[in-house]
């Protein structure tokens, strides 16, 4: 197979590739460092990567892919039990880390290889096929121990090329982001994406609106973020005209990993003239849909299927929904070259994840417009509420609540109700804790915007919502 990164040998050696703070590598330097490391790990079955937001992580993953070795990114914040499970399950032969990084005891039995970003060696031609594994990325484990999704080189290449088509992504683009590098969004899209195009990435290390403004003012053309980041941007804009001006220079602002509330969409657009576009993907599928750069950025939607991706909605009994009206809720199923190969060591889970004819069951619920646009309404397990004979998605109620000036954050769940089956519960972080909006006021607010049967029957007030590293609300923690 040809290299996933043709620019490593085809781009000018002095072309900027990676920058993390005040540390950077050109394509020539990246190729030399990756070549030296690839020579040390060639022939390994899998290698773990201590995935800190640093140059070393990017060099380690590129070297592994050039050597035809699967990389297992490790979250540095993982607890001892989770880390132990991932290591015993994936059985890496070594761990790649930055010199000086302190590794936890769970990694003590592995051979450690320090990544030298100034190393020099010839870049090997990858001796790997399209179907060989590129990455083993572990899921969040919300319903049990994390599962290792085996992602092929074919899936990585297809997703990045499909996004290049949708976003008109080229080697002239410079991406800024501050995402962690142990998952698909930050690593595959945020690091491997620019490198496949021959462009540059500037990683902030830690997200901050000042860093975003600085990089956009200094020539960055794209920004990737999660809703928590864009929410901080929206909050900062009224007091920071320089931030609004900088965001207005971007060619593309992309949000993912969770739904961006419509209210934040509107605040950013009003201040900057820019529309944030959303896309939809999962660890197991990489990217499925996106608003296109040349399409309508419709707030609250994740756009249309990417080239090569088939998408359908199905009823609870698995029957496909054949008429899309923007109202009928169904589970998303996808099929295409973007899909993962298997769950490592879990043939049972792999088989259960697919239908007999090869569609992957995402567990995400959505509605679809007649023109193909998809709007996610939540996870089947936590966000689909069956109340009074209706199927209701939590996401649209959360968006409605966030339009109330007295609500800073909101989450919606269902809980058992003898009469309704389930009643809608709103978890609200008030803008003013001393004077929160009443439950009746919030119920009327939602009923006026959506429908009476979608109003919350109970409101619970919190100081903050529990979130994971990606900014996703952990609803199981709310319900417990």
TrEMBL record:
All copies of domain AMP-binding enzyme C-terminal, residue ranges: 396-472
Any one Gene Ontology molecular-function term assigned to this protein's record? medium-chain fatty acid-CoA ligase activity
SUPFAM superfamilies named among the record's database cross-references: Acetyl-CoA synthetase-like (SSF56801)
InterPro entries given for it?
A: AMP-bd_C, AMP-bd_C_sf, AMP-binding_CS, AMP-dep_synth/lig_dom, ANL_N_sf
Where the record annotates domain AMP-dependent synthetase/ligase, the positions are: 12-344
Record Pfam families = AMP-binding (PF00501), AMP-binding_C (PF13193)
What biological processes does GO assign it?
A: fatty acid metabolic process
Which CDD domains has this protein been placed in? MCS
Identify its protein family: Belongs to the ATP-dependent AMP-binding enzyme family.
- Name the PANTHER family on file: ACYL-COA SYNTHETASE, ACYL-COA SYNTHETASE FAMILY MEMBER 3
Name-wise, this protein is Acyl-CoA synthetase
Which organism's genome codes for this protein? Streptomyces ferrugineus
């Amino acid at each position: 197979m040809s290299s996933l990164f043709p620019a490593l040998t085809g781009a000018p050696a002095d072309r900027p590739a990676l920058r993390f703070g005040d540390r950077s590598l050109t394509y020539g330097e990246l190729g030399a460092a990756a070549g030296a490391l690839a020579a040390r790990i060639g022939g390994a079955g899998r290698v773990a990567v201590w995935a800190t937001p640093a140059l070393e992580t990017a060099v380690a993953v590129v070297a592994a892919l050039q050597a035809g070795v699967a990389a297992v990114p490790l979250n540095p914040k993982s607890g001892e039990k989770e880390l132990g499970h991932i290591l015993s399950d994936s059985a890496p032969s070594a761990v790649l880390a930055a010199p000086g990084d302190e590794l936890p005891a769970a990694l003590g039995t592995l051979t450690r290889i320090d990544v030298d970003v100034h190393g020099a060696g010839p870049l090997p031609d990858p001796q790997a096929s399209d179907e060989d594994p590129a990455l083993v990325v572990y899921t969040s484990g919300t319903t049990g121990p994390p599962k290792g999704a085996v992602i092929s080189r074919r899936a990585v290449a297809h997703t990045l090329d499909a996004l290049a088509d949708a976003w008109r992504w080229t080697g002239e683009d410079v991406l800024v982001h501050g995402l962690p590098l142990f998952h698909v969004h930050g690593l595959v899209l945020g690091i491997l994406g620019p490198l496949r195009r021959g462009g540059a990435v500037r990683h902030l290390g830690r997200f901050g609106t000042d860093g975003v403004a600085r990089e956009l003012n200094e020539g960055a053309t794209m920004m990737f973020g999660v809703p928590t980041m864009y929410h901080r941007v929206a909050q900062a804009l009224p007091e920071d005209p320089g931030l609004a001006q900088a965001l207005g220079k971007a060619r593309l602002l992309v949000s993912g990993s969770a739904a961006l509330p419509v209210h934040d969409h509107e605040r950013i657009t009003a201040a900057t003239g820019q529309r944030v576009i959303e896309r939809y993907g999962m660890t197991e599928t990489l990217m499925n849909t996106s608003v296109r750069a040349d399409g309508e950025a419709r707030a609250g939607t994740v756009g249309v299927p990417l080239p090569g991706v088939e998408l359908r909605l199905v009823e609870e009994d698995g029957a496909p929904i054949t008429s899309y009206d923007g109202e009928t809720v169904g589970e998303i199923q996808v099929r295409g070259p973007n899909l993962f190969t298997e769950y490592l060591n879990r043939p049972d889970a792999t088989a259960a994840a697919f239908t007999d004819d090869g569609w992957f069951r995402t567990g995400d619920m959505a509605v679809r417009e007649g023109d193909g646009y998809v709007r996610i309404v939540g996870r089947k397990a936590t966000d689909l509420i069956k109340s009074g004979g209706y199927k209701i998605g939590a996401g649209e109620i959360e968006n409605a609540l966030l339009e109330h000036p007295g609500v800073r954050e909101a989450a919606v769940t269902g809980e058992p109700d003898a009469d309704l089956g389930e009643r809608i519960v709103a978890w609200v972080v008030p803008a003013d804790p001393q004077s929160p909006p009443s439950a009746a006021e919030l119920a009327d607010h939602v009923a006026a915007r959506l429908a009476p049967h979608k109003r919350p029957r109970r409101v619970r007030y919190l100081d903050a919502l529990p979130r994971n590293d990606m900014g996703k609300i952990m609803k199981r923690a709310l319900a417990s």
